[in-house]
Amino acid sequence: MKSVIQEEDYKAKYIQSEDRFRTIFSLTSAATKIIDENLVIIEVNDALTDLLGYTRAEICGKKIMDFACKQHIASWENLQHEMWFRGKPFFKLEACLKTKGGGIVWVHVTTIVFSDGNKRFAYTVLDDYTFMKSYQESEKRLNMSLQYSRMAVFELNLESGEVIHSEGLNEIIGLKAADIKLDVKLLIARFIEEDATEIETLLNNIPVNGSIDFVGRVKIAPNVLKWVHLQGRMEPGENTAHKLLGTVQDVSKEKKADQYKDDFISIASHELRTPITILSGTLQLLERNKPKGDPKLAGLIDQANKGLKKVTTLIEDLLNASKMNEGQLHLNKKPFNIVDAVNECCAHINREGIYKIIIEGDLFADIIGDSDRIQQVIINFINNAIKYAPDEKIIRVKALDLGDAIKISVIDSGPGIEYEKAAHLFDRYYRVDAKGSQYSGLGLGLYISAEIIKKHDGKIGVTSDYGEGSEFWFILPK
Q: What single-letter DSSP state applies at residue 417?
């Protein structure tokens, strides 16, 4: 009687244990299956059907290789042999499986062999890491693209000085050892002294929502410098910590190409000055002896003079750009009235009577600077207003006293400038009309203006709504 009770008790416990297993197997969030010695799937849970997109009936009775990506079938077959014929009790595997929708999922597979009576089965858990795989592949592609572009990305915590960066940053800034812990002090120290001082000042004074755009030189070997372009934007971090996210790029090749171009332009411009001077003298002589009875010849002389002025302006722009790039722009600073300067440089425009310059605002504002260079900037702004808004005959020049600085704006009512193009207006050789089919010039005027204002420790910019005119402005300290 006792043995019968024990047997019934064992059966009850077995059934209870089986029910618990089935419940856990069915409800677990991990994709799970049970296979036999032939790798035939005999049971799956809901998580696995959700993962692959097939119903239980579509999966059970088939082999796992029916769902495996082609390149992984051999690995499954090899593990089948190891497990069922060589007695390996468990295995782990990385594999990809095909879903019903035509996609693939990447899984970490863990399989454990167990016996049930005289039969052997395997319990398999499939851990989906498709997202992580995609992230790893994306990171790999990013690092490869950064490597080919001679660029690295970084995150700088401005409070702790910690720098987190991608592969390649150490190489870009000339650090040989990859295991060196990079921080903001070491990053700054990689630049030559004058550039290090400048970037340190920029980093210490960057606004909460500001950005940084800096080009400097790092010393990678005795007498060997590398040009590096560092760009970044502030992003608020956790616990109000502020971080600078950005890129560092090796621009040495571009700088070398610019140097070759500047050398050529400088030499060519200087060589052109002599024949231009001779031509100018000849045209002045012809102008004084212009035949009154021959309007055609007189018109040709006028046309030649206008063409010579354009050529002279282009040569001067080239020489100025070359000087600025070499740091040879020298200023003769002294106090002057900004309105007087505007009147002086715009007198010829008012005399011609085609366009009218209206000066408004704080007319008695005085600043300290190089009057000739500032007039050059103003004329550049006005010439651009005439060039790009020829139908608008009134151009406003506004002076605004900001207390410790003076803001000068040249305002037109022309077509305005698209936002994407406005961001590049002060780049060297950039012109709004990229095809060059409508406007003449080399795209140096605004670049030269920006360098002049920079030399004055000022700011320069443009405010424009496409279709609603433009305001080119600069701010100079008093």
A: -
For residues 333-364, one letter each, b for 16 or more C-beta atoms within 10 angstroms of the residue's C-beta and e for the rest, the string is eeebbbbebbeebbeebeeeeebebeeebeee
Q: Which residues contact 385 (CB under 8 A, 6 or more apart)?
A: 392, 395, 410, 412, 414, 470, 472
221-253 per-residue burial string, b: 16 or more CB within 10 A, e: under 16: eeeebbbbbbebebeeeeeeebbbbbbbbbbbe
Both tokens of residue 460?
A: 């320069």
pLDDT digits (tens, 9 = 90+) for 311-351: 777 777 777 766 666 666 677 888 888 888 888 887 777 66
Place of tokens 């504002």: 365
Q: Which two tokens stand for residue 475?
A: 């701010």
- pLDDT tens for residues 268-288? 766 777 787 778 888 888 877
Q: In the numeric block, which tokens belong to residue 80? A: 């089948």
Residue 1 has pLDDT above 50, yes or no: no
Cβ–Cβ < 8 Å for 444, 359: no
Residue 471 token pair: 């305001």
DSSP symbol at 66: G
Q: What is the DSSP letter of 212?
A: E
Residue 267 one-letter amino acid: I
Kindly report whether the global pTM for this prediction surpasses the value 0.70.
Answer: no
**How would you class 451 by CB atoms within 10 Å of its CB: exposed for 0-12, middle for 13-18, buried for 19 or more?**
buried
The whole-angstrom separation of Cα 341 and Cα 116 is 100
> 334-337 and 366-369 as β-strands: parallel, antiparallel, unpaired?
antiparallel
